[in-house]
Amino acid sequence: MRQNRPGNTLVEFCALFGVSRQAYYLAHHKASRTSIGNMIVLKLVGEFRATIPMLGTRKLLYLLLPEMEKHEIKMGRDQLYELLRFHGLLIRKRKRMTKTTDSHHWLRKYPNLIKHLTLSAPEQLWVSDITYIRTLEGFSYLSLITDAYSRKIVGFSLHPNLEAVGCINALLPSSPL
Fold it and tell me: Partners of 138 in the beta sheet?
């Protein structure tokens, strides 16, 4: 603004915006220090991300703190997040969960027959489930049969595929757990 109107003094501009000359110079000095500090931090982030590409912002801040103290840069977690967000350097969180259940299929869905059943003792109701376990050879499938009242596992079977044999083996008597 001072460049567009060279005839006006700094005092007039400060009065126009309602700030003191001291506040103007303080803000000007802070802005120049911040921009230099931001450039240093962005360069350091680039160096760390070159060695560890998927390094998150919190761990990055932990690694940057000694370097920032060396350069007398004061920046907290939120300010670092904002800086990285502004420059498009935030790492997106990866989805770690695999969707294993699809309830929106065209096959028949059976009603819940035990919805209003009240259990009073063990061995009244068994429930079963199948889960997969990743092994060195691929996936194995664990069939579990659990007592609904006591939540004790009453049968299990680990099978290399999803054939019904694995579920039937879980029903057969085995050694007690």
Answer: 135
Give the C-alpha separation, 58 to 71, whole Å: 20
How far is it, in rounded angstroms, from Cα 76 to Cα 96?
Answer: 28
Task: State how far the Cα of 42 lies from the Cα of 57, in Å rounded to an integer.
Answer: 12
Radius of gyration of the chain (CA): 32
Q: Which residues of 69-88 are buried (b: 16+ CB within 10 A; e: fewer)?
A: eeeebebeeeebeebbeeee
Please, what's the largest Cα pairwise distance for the chain? 98
Look up residue 39 and give its DSSP letter. Answer: H
Residue identified by tokens 């502004």 is 86
- 84-142 pLDDT, tens digit per residue, is 988 888 888 777 777 777 888 888 888 889 989 999 999 999 999 999 999 898 899 99
Cα separation, 64 vs 68, whole angstroms: 6
- Global model pTM greater than 0.70: no
* Among 154, 156, 155, residue whose Cα is nearest residue 142: 156
